[in-house]
Write a structure and sequence with these properties.
With 451 residues, this protein is mainly α. It has helices at residues 15-21, 25-38, 46-54, 59-65, 79-84, 95-117, 123-151, 155-187, 189-199, 201-209, 217-221, 229-236, 238-247, 250-261, 263-266, 272-279, 283-311, 314-330, 341-368, 375-393, 397-408, 410-422, 426-441. The protein starts with 14 loop residues before the first helix and ends in a 10-residue tail after the last helix. The protein has one domain (23-445): Growth Hormone, Chain: A.
């Protein structure tokens, strides 16, 4: 919001030019990398909770063990290393690709470890492998997000790659939220997790097919080595100095808005699958609805979210997205009263659409705020910010439901918690409304925001 705007507005690409861009190999690579990025996420979160609930684990324990996902919020602390240092042994692939491959290998090892020890090995043992998986997955995200931003020749291509990444990511979420549940009903949870480890091969193949982006090389090569005092200071402190020098005090409002944006989606996250279990919905029912209605709604959310960012502007899209998130989360309360197939499909479709729409808007906004030379660290800062509060609060979701159960009954407790979580959409809506007005008041010096 304080950066100098381009002297002349860029010509918007025509629909045919956009369709032509989709044929670029890097779009297909980004789709596969997005899939690799999304695959481990639910396997240490909501789907992991379903497995634990299946063997009788308490909601309180499920909520607390979801804190392994805090690894995603801490990645800003090791992002400077990913930004500035080649990974040992794999550095010949290039910095971004080397870190991707190393992280993908460790993710696969972590998933196989979860399958090998199983719940019979105790929550501590399986939780340790879940933490390893989450840590490696967060590291993979640092490298992939930097590659996505640096591989785009301009902001239009970054937007195109962002949409491809979101599509791949959402497909992975459906696989680990639907296909794995159907598989678990037939071959058990451990074998299903081994299958997910094998699917990390999609990301490995994409890493070998990707090129090493050179757009930031000149900037990075001009910086002092990480192991020198100057280089260490620039790698660790420089991204924050550059961010606040560019955005001034408004940067604090940006970070707060980003931190609150996904609360409706995150806070009750560990309780979704236990909720379906306690509603009496079968694994096949959940898998079928997620793989049909959920899939279509997700694709529509991504497409309409990208279109809305272009037609309405990113700030209006962000506000619409968070409202949809709040409504989609609160709608799950309806299932406590009426949990037949059509109602479940309608609620699932609404929530899938809302999450995909909001996700595209937020990722596009955060990507527009990064600067070359600090891409990995600044995006890690923003993505850690949006995940930190929600991933912390979701650890108490099981406590909240169980504390409400004596007065509301189990299903009534779930419903009350979902409605309360949906209301958390109000603060980020107001903050992005404020940011949009500040942006319009200073059009000549506004930070370009791309869809």
């Amino acid at each position: 919001m304080t950066a100098t705007a381009a002297a002349a507005p860029r010509r918007k690409r025509t629909a045919m030019e956009v369709l032509s861009s989709l044929r670029q190999p890097k779009v297909a690579v980004m789709l596969a990398l997005g899939f690799s990025s999304g695959l481990p996420f639910l396997l240490t979160a909501n789907t992991f909770g379903y497995w634990l609930r299946d063997v009788g684990t308490s909601l309180t324990a499920i909520g607390f063990i979801s804190w392994v996902g805090l690894a995603y919020t801490m990645k800003v602390f090791w992002a400077p290393i990913v930004d500035r240092v080649d990974v040992p042994l794999l550095g010949r692939l290039g910095r971004r690709r080397g870190w991707m491959l190393a992280a993908q290998i460790v993710v696969a090892i972590g998933l196989i470890g979860m399958a090998a020890v199983g719940t019979a090995g105790g929550l501590t043992a399986i939780g340790a492998f879940a933490l390893l998986t989450a840590f490696a997955s967060a590291t993979q995200d640092i490298a992939i997000d930097a590659w996505r931003i640096e591989a785009g020749a301009d902001s239009d291509e970054v937007g195109l790659l962002t949409s491809a990444a979101q599509l791949g990511y959402r497909v992975a979420l459906l696989v680990t939220d639907a296909l794995i549940i159907a598989a678990a009903a037939r071959v058990g949870w451990p074998m299903s997790y081994v299958g997910m480890a094998v699917l990390m091969g999609v990301g490995v193949a994409a890493t070998f097919l990707a090129f090493e982006p050179a757009r930031a090389d000149a900037v990075l090569h001009s910086k002092a080595p990480l192991w020198t005092p100057r280089g260490f200071f620039d790698a660790v402190v420089g991204p924050f100095v550059e961010f606040f020098a560019k955005h001034k005090a408004v940067g604090l409002i940006m970070l707060l808005a980003v931190a609150l944006y996904r609360l409706p989606d995150f806070v009750m996250g560990p309780m979704y699958n236990p909720y379906y279990h306690d509603l009496g919905l079968t694994k096949d029912t959940v898998a079928m609805v997620r793989g049909s209605v959920g899939l279509v709604a997700t694709f529509l959310g991504i497409a309409i979210g990208g279109l809305a960012a272009i037609r309405l502007g990113v700030f209006r899209s962000l506000m619409l997205g968070v409202v949809l998130e709040g409504i989609g989360t609160a709608a799950f309360a309806i299932l406590a009263l009426h949990a037949d197939m059509p109602t479940f499909a309608a609620v699932m479709g609404l929530d899938s659409f809302a999450q995909a729409f909001a996700g595209v808007a937020l990722v596009a906004y955060m990507s527009s705020l990064t600067g070359l030379g600090y891409t990995a660290t600044q995006y890690a800062l923003l993505s850690s910010t949006y995940a930190l509060l929600g991933k912390f609060l979701k650890g108490f979701s099981g406590v909240a439901v169980e504390s409400l159960t004596p007065s509301h009954g189990l299903l009534g407790a779930y419903a009350t918690a979902f409605i309360a979580t949906g209301l958390l959409a109000a603060p980020p809506f107001l903050l992005f409304l404020l940011l949009g007005r500040l942006h319009r008041r200073a059009p000549a010096t506004a930070q370009p925001v791309t869809a």
